[in-house]
Amino acid sequence: MSTYADRLAALREELARRRLDGFVVPLTDEHMSEYVGAYAQRLAWLTGFQGSAGTAAVLPSEAAIFVDGRYTIQVREQVSPDQWSYQSVPQTSVAEWLAATAPDGARIGYDPWLHTKQWVQAASRALKEKGATLVAVDTNPIDAVWPDKPLPSAARLIVQPDALAGRSSAQKRAEMADWLAEKKADAAVLSALDSIAWTFNVRGADVDRTPVALAYAIVNADGTADLFTAPEKVSDEVRQHLGNAVRLHPREAFAGHLAGLGGKRVAADPERAVAAIFGALEGAGATVLELRDPAVLPKAIKNEAEIGGHRAAQARDGAALCRFLHWLSIEAPKGHLTELSAAAKLKEFRDATHQLKDLSFDTISAAGPHAALPHYRVDESSDLPLAIDSIYLVDSGGQYQDGTTDVTRTVIVGTPTAEMKDRFTRVLKGHIAIATALFPAGTRGSQLNSFARAPLWRAGLDYAHGTGHGVGSFLSVHEGPQRISPAGSAQAGGDEPLRAGMILSNEPGYYKAGEYGIRIENLVLVERREVAGAEKPVLGFETLTFAPIDRRLIDPSLLSADERVWLDSYHADVADIIGPLLEGEAAEWLRAETAPL
After folding, report:
1. Whole-prediction pTM value?
2. Sign of the CA dihedral 299, 303, 308, 314?
3. If pLDDT is split at 50, 70 and 90, which confidence band does 494 have?
4. Phi and psi at residue 136, in whole multiples of 5°?
5. Are 4 and 75 in contact (CB under 8 A)?
6. What is the greatest pairwise CA distance in the chain?
7. CA-CA distance, 240 to 249, in Å (whole number)?
8. Exposed/middle/buried for 592, CB within 10 Å: 0-12, 13-18, 19+?
9. Are residues 83 and 5 in contact, defined by beta-carbon separation less than 8 angstroms?
């Protein structure tokens, strides 16, 4: 078993062999995915970093790893300072660090299948001042020194039935063809895996936690399409589902197919398609239209079938979570639970639905000081006990064929301090402010963001993550383009107008470093609201997630009369929707937890 130091040395030797002075290693795949298959975990293999966002840069005598504020502590626990310096994003960037650190005239390698065109242009500009150049590699040098690199998943595609999808793939492609005609384009390149899954009403098992299949697609102006995926992944059932208007090709034929689009007007998404795709199209003589992937917005606006499926998934998942919270209320005070054992038990309750396909992300099971890390991920080395008189935060979700869930509950084991109750109640007030917001059509998520923060701001407090992200339908738990986040933040999407049918999370929080953290998260559906005398269409949120909010952490004196009404009404809905799905002691427990405040 090689050490991380050995792996870095092997990469440096390979770079020297290729006459490269450096190389950039992002945590993504050829589809700009957030979660990637084992074959694409190059950053983790090289450095040991297990977070879900980061980049490394390697030079002959220096190496750096770049992470944002979510991973400041984790990167120091997992990546050795003997080989790597820690760099914070957005305070610095890979390009800025390379420009400051690389030798004059250096040749810095990058894999054009793992970066956007915009990144390549920005990095090239930064390096140019040093006389350094960015060099696209034909094959990734890490792959040459990673002896037991996993192969891409061979899992078969599955059909997502039209009854759950709400519209057939042919209907979706016909709408894309209309869009292409409007843009005077011949074809659109789809490279984002969730866009492909949505467009063709297929799902897969190639990436942990996201039910997508490794593929590329080109949708043509006549409504036909070319789908590029490994032939052994396509069963007769999937072939029949796709029909004659979808031509199947091996995944490795994609680049060659792009080269055949010379003279055509082709749409490609600069945010989701990698630099290699733009290079191939431009090299072939195609006119490239830099436009947003045409699946992104219709995928985000759920239809009635998707909304109905989501409600069913939420009730099923809510019952599993409530069974867990009841179990936790009995077992946690005994003092024998740990973060890992609690997360395993929660998965057992979800598995018992017999409909769980996967978790929607790795469960954040965080006790005491770990709850202050918004994106903490427990492992054997970090596993803390759930201590008496401490907070336990659990952020989790499930992938079901009818919907994707994401929910956070924060509970006290024992007795909370007055400060904990104050902070929890302020977070709850922010959560209620989003849940009850009414806003004119055209409002952006960034305009609602301060509603959630105001109760914390009044006490000189805040939190360092977005307030809400989009969620897919048996797809990505983090789905764009909509978000509730500060304008101009690193988390893009806060400037996307919210539209009826979009699903988002509502998850304000508070984190006291080294002590505890609080987050209350439900999913919400944007819906039309009738408001007497309104001069513009009005939107609001329907809450979709049902599980009790821990009343032992609430200071009722901080809640307004309207906030108390909302909380009692929400708990009555939890009792009505989840109560009939529970039995025995769990049902009794839920009745007590959802009684009026």
Report:
1. 0.96
2. positive
3. low
4. -75, 130
5. no
6. 73
7. 15
8. exposed
9. yes
pLDDT digit string, tens, across residues 88-141: 998 999 999 999 999 999 999 999 999 999 999 999 999 998 899 999 999 999
CA distance 165 to 309: 9
Q: Which one-letter DSSP state was computed for residue 535?
A: S
Report DSSP letters for 172-238, one per residue: HHHHHHHHHHHTT-SEEEE--HHHHHHHHTEE--SBTTB---S-EEEEETTS-EEEE--GGG--HHH
φ, ψ (nearest 5 deg) of residue 318:
-65, -40
CA distances from 531 to 439, 448, 451 (A): 11, 19, 20
Within 10 Å of residue 470's Cβ, how many Cβ atoms? 25
279: enclosing H helix or E strand: helix 275-284
CB atoms within 10 A of CB 128: 12
Contact 241, 69 (CB under 8 A): no
Which is nearest to 529 in space by CA: 446, 452, 436?
A: 436
Contact 499, 408 (CB under 8 A): no
> pLDDT for 162-201, tens place per residue?
999 999 999 999 999 999 999 999 999 999 999 999 999 9
Separation between Cα atoms, residue 168 and residue 87, nearest integer Å: 46
